[in-house]
Amino acid sequence: MARPGVPRAPAAGWKRHIVRQLRQRDRMQKALFLELVPAYNHLLEQAELLDKFSKKLQTEPKDVTLATHQGPWEEDSGPDSNQFPSLATLRVKWNEEEEGLRLVCGEMAYQVVEKSAALGALESQLEEQQSRLAALDSRVGELQEAREQRAAQVREQRAQNAAQRAAYEALRARAGLQEAALRRRQEEARDLLERLVQRKARAAAERNLRNERRERAKQAQVSQELKKAAKRTVSICESPNTIQGDGFRERPETLALAAEPESLENEACEKWKRPFRSASATSLTLSHCVDVVKGFLDFKKRRGHSIGGAPEQRYQSIPVCVAARLPTWAQDVLDAHLSEVNAVCFGPDSSLLATGGADCLIHLWNVVGGRLEANQTLKGAGGSITSVDFDPSGSQVLAATYNQAAQLWKVGEAQSKETLSGHKDKVTAAKFKLTRHQAVTGSRDRTVKEWDLDRAYCSRTINVLSYCNDVVCGNHIIISGHNDQKIRFWDSRGPRCIQVIPVQGRVTSLSLSHDQLHLLSCSRDNTLKVIDLRVSNIRQVFRADGFKCSSDWTKAVFSPDRSYALAGSGDGALYIWNADTGKLEGSLQGPHCTAVNAVAWCYSGSHVASVDQGRKIALWH
Questions:
Q1: Is the pTM of this model over 0.70?
Q2: C-alpha angle with apex 293: 287 to 298, nearest 5 degrees?
Q3: What is the pLDDT of residues 132-183, one digit of tens each?
Q4: Per-residue pLDDT tens digits for 257-315
Q5: DSSP string, 342-357
């Protein structure tokens, strides 16, 4: 017996459940026998009544025999003869009641059989329910055990979640500290970059100042020596190399400076050959020499934009293709990169090809016998390559990247030589200028920058009102195509934009003809336009059914002889137009199953290269 105040064991619950089930079974069976018990009681009453009648009938025949031996006169002698029924009447009544009781007994027996069958069915159902109840009880026990296990797992999981939450909070706090440290490092890097740029600018200014001082000192020294020489009497003989005087000897530096201009040298030689010895004549001649030298120095000053500035060094001109050959079929098709290929460019000798892609690599290919052979892989780019260009000598490769910088490689060296950093957004174009050691880049930060490659220094920044998608360079001009559907022209010797030509659609690429008289632009309105730079007007507009400019970096090019315009379409085909008539020469369907991003035409005019968004490069012949 349980003590008061002490909680019962958990096992008492199933006992209560069994008691409830037994009570419910008693109620169900009692309800089934409620009809059977009254009928059975009635049957017992009828049986007792029948038993009484049977006993009575067993005693009555003796009385009847006595009555039959009496005479007829004895029938009416008794005073109570009319009070009892006759024997025949009783017998009939007894037979009737017996028949009725027999029928009732039959019905009762039939009902007993039916009730017994129903009772057997109910007992079988009860057994089934009891077995089912036992199975359910075992199932309940299993579920309770599983519930306890799940509860234990939930508790463990909650403990793990709490530990992970604490670890997450710690990592979040650490990440916040690292992010703050990263921002500080970035600010320090920007400050260091600005200081480096300022230091380079100061170094360049100091160098220019030293050169200016040196040139001024040299000029002053030459002027003094020439003035001294002009004051002395000099005898000039027939030989131009012999100068006699009172101990006067011409310094080699003076002779070198005096001999630089060809006109000055000719004039001096003619005067030296004259057979006169007058001091006044000699003085005039030397004074004139001083004036000429001063004028020559002033000319050098104006040409170099600073005193002592060196003349511009230009690349040797690339041979011009007389007649380009139209491509007809793809000679070689390769998977050039691991992902999308964005840029392609031929070297000036047409035997070297460069491709740049979204895998941050530049591959150099040799064009041998109409096939592409891997030459070298240039590494070190910090982002996807958007533009590739060879310098006119073919010794350097310049690439624009999504890492807010342009990078310079030397052909033959796998690692980057210089990084031109200073843009604040993706660099979309990078091109060499015709002047040595100079380049131009365009970016989505709405700027165009000129670079001094010797010092990796930005010499000029041009702010524009729109994204720059491509740039090309002429002799003294920079042309940029923008997202606001305009082409802008910049004089590299002046500070401002000199001309703006509007076009329909965002400009995706620019191509300058070899004679620098025509400009080809590709735009998102699915057209190519030829601009005559002599009159600054659109001369031709190229369209074609099926041609689609699929992206903001789709590139179109002139053929080397400017006879044709070539562009790749979003359906993987190459379209060629006649640049003079504007007629579509044809479309090349080939290995490209995705949009063509860029095309290139070699300088010899014999091959065309195309790259697409599906990693492929095709060489056409």
A1: no
A2: 130
A3: 999 999 899 999 999 999 999 999 999 999 999 999 999 989 998 998 899 8
A4: 333 333 433 443 343 333 333 333 333 444 444 454 445 444 444 444 433 344 567 77
A5: EEEEE-TTSSEEEEEE
Q: Are strands 616-620 and 330-335 parallel, antiparallel or unpaired?
A: antiparallel
CA-wise closest residue to 506 among 491, 522, 488, 518 = 522
Q: C-alpha distances in angstroms, 297 versus 109, 216, 349?
A: 150, 10, 39
> In terms of DSSP H, where are the helices of 70-86?
none
Let me know how long the chain is: 621
- pLDDT tens track for 25-45: 888 877 777 777 787 788 888
Residue 306 CB coordination number (10 Å): 16
Structure tokens at 53: 């009648």
Q: How far apart are CA 218 and CA 249, in angstroms?
A: 18
C-alpha–C-alpha distance, residues 372 and 368, integer Å = 6
Structure tokens at 250: 């011409």
Task: Determine the straight-line distance between the first and last CA of the chain, rounded to whole angstroms.
Answer: 106
Q: Is 363:409 a contact under the CB 8 Å cutoff?
A: no
Cα separation, 326 vs 607, whole angstroms: 9
Kindly tell me if the per-residue pLDDT of 17 is higher than 90: no
> What are the phi and psi torsion angles at 495 (to 5°)?
-90, -15
